[in-house]
């Protein structure tokens, strides 16, 4: 890749890292301040959830930076690990379920805290997916790139359901694979018995896809034609 093209991309990535870093710092500060304010660890679990959301972003960033040198034997296994951890990022949106009035802290503060964490999870998901879609588009074309993004978001929505309602996590594919496989297969073979599963998957998937498309279009609005 010529240097003239590489430098703008490096600047964009650094700018993204700075903004995401500032946004994540805000979430950490809000969570930490709440602990000091209430002497309770009510929302400390969000720190772990944000860490899990950073894993797919870290993997996609690594793949994006080394895209020109990647071979299929590296891309495929790393991409599979990325897909396994990817639902952890949009999953944080469902932590809004924990919002309720609590003593010792204003309701609006907890709302801001949860929204901050949810926003970071969503933005980490979209930033990560953008890198992965670019890799697919570069190899297979525009339509394949968007097909990949759509499938990834629908699968992540299914993963969110597994995590929120069945309490599975990414590690269960290693530590509890039989139960995980049985529950997934049971829902595939008997879809009418698990309408909630597919309702959450489709509705959440459509929401994530529309949000992703909106963010991608907003990112292109400032570009000059032909860029």
Automatic annotation (TrEMBL):
- Ranges that cross the membrane: 16-37, 43-67, 74-93, 105-128, 140-162, 196-215
Keywords, in A-Z order: Membrane, Transmembrane, Transmembrane helix
Tree of life domain: Bacteria
Name of this protein:
DUF1361 domain-containing protein
């Amino acid at each position: 890749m010529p240097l003239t093209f590489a430098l703008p991309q490096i600047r964009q990535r650094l700018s993204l890292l700075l903004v995401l870093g500032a946004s994540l710092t805000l979430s950490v500060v809000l969570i930490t301040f709440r602990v000091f304010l209430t002497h309770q660890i009510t929302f400390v679990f969000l720190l772990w959830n944000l860490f899990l959301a950073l894993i797919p972003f870290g993997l996609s960033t690594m793949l994006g930076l080394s895209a020109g040198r990647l071979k299929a034997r590296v891309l495929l296994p790393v991409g599979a690990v990325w897909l396994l951890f990817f639902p952890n990022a949009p999953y944080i949106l469902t932590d809004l379920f924990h919002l309720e009035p609590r003593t010792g802290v204003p309701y609006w503060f907890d709302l801001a805290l949860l929204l901050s964490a949810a926003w970071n999870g969503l933005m980490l998901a979209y930033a990560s997916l953008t890198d992965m879609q670019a890799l697919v588009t570069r190899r297979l074309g525009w339509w394949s790139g968007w097909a990949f993004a759509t499938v990834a978001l629908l699968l992540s929505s299914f993963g969110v359901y597994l995590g929120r309602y069945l309490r599975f996590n990414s590690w269960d594919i290693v530590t509890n694979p039989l139960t995980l496989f049985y529950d997934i297969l049971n829902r595939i073979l008997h879809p009418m018995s698990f309408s909630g599963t597919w309702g959450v998957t489709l509705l959440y998937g459509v929401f994530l896809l529309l949000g992703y498309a909106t963010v991608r279009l907003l990112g292109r609005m400032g570009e000059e034609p032909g860029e």
